[in-house]
Specification:
heterodimer, A: 197 residues, mainly alpha, Rna Polymerase Sigma Factor, Chain: A, Arc Repressor Mutant, subunit A, 2 domains, 9 helices, globular, B: 216 residues, alpha+beta, Jelly Rolls, 6 helices, 21% strand, elongated
């Protein structure tokens, strides 16, 4: 897939700096600010919809998931912890989990929100606080720096509904090769992000 | 808890992107609850998802969807942050699946002398299986290649193989072609949570597991 992240990210940065989105979310959390929520909706709903459609939903299903995702944002806004990652990342995990739960017809187990993991002490460790390197612009820039074959595999995994075994079949590569390419790409990405941190 | 064996980065990416099979996802969640390093790794992998979402081309959302969402806000229960500290012997995600039952009270099925198993139900459509294994000290698990994607989390006790010592909290997240021969070490029964992809293959592992117990 063509990777337009950098230019898109540049555009996005001006209208919707991560700090501004975090500010909107905190207004929702603290004072149930509907104006701030509407602004979050207008920013994220079209992205969540596009994301769901890439993952195979039709327009109607995608809008149902948009609605559920944004209502969960309203409901869970007090659970967002800025140090753990960007608002986009938080909303991404909510959208991902709702989508998976919908796919599982008989829900023996719901996908967990990461906030639900019982950390031994409930505190955020030094390693866990992400800081600036977690911001979407940095991640997008870092993605642009890794080799194309590794980047494409990594992105494919996020935007399409395929397991690593399925990617292997699709690209006619052994599973081990897909995994090691994924691993390499991800490790490079982490290294680049570490430098920003 | 000192963790020496962590999740593969490829697994973190698969979980973060929502593409890990169900049973494997549960083992990841249980390990991540015990391991700060993998928790951080997972957040970073989810950060890639956030960046990808932020970068999506926008698909216009209908006015109906927008107004219905805004009109529903009053009906939504606002959740407040909960303090989460698991008092139990297993991580919260697992304890929920076991309905809070202690490991000792589960309906373990004896598969061979010194080796018992408990199946944890997953959703109907799931192509994966989640199991608890209980293996007595001194028992060896014969050499086996991993059939499909398999992740093992050690909950209690310890085993050793050529990769090293695996203790409570450690995870064996190995490529399917890795051969290994774990031996349960120490005084304690070793209890593992295992996610497997291919059930038929797992049956053959039981058979191999059973072998060393004969004559003990």
């Amino acid at each position: 897939m063509a990777f337009s992240a950098l230019t898109m990210a540049e555009q996005v940065r001006n209208q919707s700096a991560p700090d501004h989105l975090a500010e909107l979310l905190s207004r929702v959390a603290q004072s149930r600010d509907r104006g701030a929520f509407a602004e979050l909706f207008d920013h994220f709903a079209p992205r969540v919809k596009a994301f769901m459609m890439r993952k195979g939903s039709n327009a109607e299903q995608a809008e149902d998931l948009v609605q559920e995702t944004m209502l969960a944002v309203w409901s869970k806004s007090q659970m967002y912890v800025n140090e753990r990652g960007s608002v986009a990342t938080w909303i991404f995990t909510i959208a991902r989990n709702l989508r998976i739960d919908k796919l599982r017809r008989d829900k023996a187990q719901l996908y967990q929100d990461i906030e639900d993991f019982d950390a031994p002490d409930g505190k955020i460790g030094a390693d866990e606080a992400m800081g600036r390197s977690q911001e979407d612009n940095y991640v997008n820039k870092a993605l642009a720096q890794i080799p194309a074959d590794q980047r494409e595999l990594l992105i494919l995994s996020y935007v399409e509904d395929v397991t690593q075994s399925e990617i292997a079949l699709k690209l006619n590569l052994p599973l081990g090769t897909v995994k090691s390419r994924m691993r390499l790409g991800y490790q490079r990405l982490r290294k680049i992000l570490e430098q920003v941190k | 808890m000192t963790i020496s064996h962590h999740l593969d980065d490829a697994t973190l990416v698969a979980y973060a992107s929502g593409n890990l099979p169900e049973a494997h996802g549960i083992v990841v969640e249980a390990h991540v609850a015990m391991c700060q390093a993998c928790r951080a790794g997972l957040r970073q992998a989810e950060g890639v998802g956030g960046a990808v979402l932020a970068d999506q081309m926008e698909a216009p959302v209908s006015d109906v969807c927008r107004s219905a969402t805004l009109a529903s806000l009053d009906a939504v229960l606002v959740q407040s942050p909960r303090a989460k500290t698991s008092q139990g012997e297993v991580p919260l995600v697992l304890s929920r699946l076991l309905n809070g039952k202690p490991l000792a009270d589960l309906a373990w099925k004896k598969k061979a002398p010194g080796f018992s198993m408990f199946n944890i139900p997953t959703s109907k459509g799931s192509k994966t299986q989640l199991k608890l294994l209980s293996i007595k000290p001194g028992a060896a698990i014969p050499e086996h290649g991993h059939g499909g994607e398999e992740i093992t989390l050690i909950l209690k006790g310890a085993y050793r193989d050529h990769m090293g010592l695996y203790q409570a909290g450690d995870v064996a997240d190995l490529d399917e072609d890795v051969e290994h021969t774990p031996i349960v070490v120490g005084e304690e029964v070793c209890i593992c949570l295992v996610a497997v992809e291919a059930p038929t293959r797992f049956k053959s592992i039981w058979a191999r597991l059973a072998q060393p117990f004969v004559g003990i």
